[in-house]
Amino acid sequence: MLQYQNNRSYDYSSLESEYRTEYDIIISMIDKNSSVIDLGCGNGSLLQMLVEQKNISACGIELSESGVKACIKKGLKVDAGRIDAPLNFPDNSFDYAICNATIQMVMYPEVLLSEMKRIAKYQIISFPNFAYFKNRFELLFGGRMPEHMLFGFKWYDTGHIHQLSIKDFNQLTTIIDGLSIVERRYLLSKNPLKNFFISKFPNMFDQLPVFLLRKL
Q: What is the pLDDT at residue 7?
């Protein structure tokens, strides 16, 4: 019998705290004592680390009820709602707007990025790079939807509805007027050769890029 498990339900009831490698990169991009909003903040683990390490003024928006509850338990200010729709914040409300590994899961990524630009001076965005070489091989030789970046899920039960590559994201930033890419960072490994290929050919070898953008 088919067991209905999917990552569209955004259920954090069994994962109220976590650590992910890209958190350190994102934290390093943010100045101390800044104002930060995390869009799609999940269980609030990144926001909590930012409060503790950078003394930021923090808030977040999260779609799932379990995620909001996990954030509240941490003492964070988080509202429930969508992030790919007009946000109830005035222009330039924050120094930084973060969207970590979530832009590929929303219905309107272009609206999300536009709203991030509107409400914050800087935008930090990460996402699984669908052009990663293992995905290319899986599609080329297997002829099926690659599963490497779906984290154990299938094409039909994943919340990743808008898969994108680094080149796709670069193009999107040109469509949104008034945005500039400040830097792109990647997850370092212990293998210098792997780091070399990531730096030279990011669209093929960078698994989860982290972009820092700035409003012009």
A: 62
* SS3 assignment for 144-191: CCCCHHHCCCCCCCCCCCCCECHHHHHHHHHHCCCEEEEEEECCCCCC
> Which candidate, 188, 182, 181, 186, places its Cα nearest to that of 209?
186
Q: Is 191 exposed, middle or buried (0-12, 13-18, 19+ CB in 10 A)?
A: exposed
Task: Convert the pLDDT of each residue in 151-187 to its tens digit.
Answer: 778 888 888 899 999 999 999 999 999 999 999 999 8
Integer Rg of the chain from CA: 17
Q: Give φ, ψ of 12 to 5 degrees.
A: -105, 15
Nearest of 29, 174, 178, 40 to residue 117 by alpha carbon:
178
* pLDDT over 90 (residue 20): yes
Residue 139 has pLDDT above 50, yes or no: yes
- Alpha-carbon torsion angle 42, 73, 19, 214, nearest 10: 50
Decide if pLDDT at 17 tops 70.
yes
Distances (CA, A) of 62 to 14, 79, 197: 16, 6, 35
> Residue 79 and residue 62: Cα distance in Å, rounded?
6
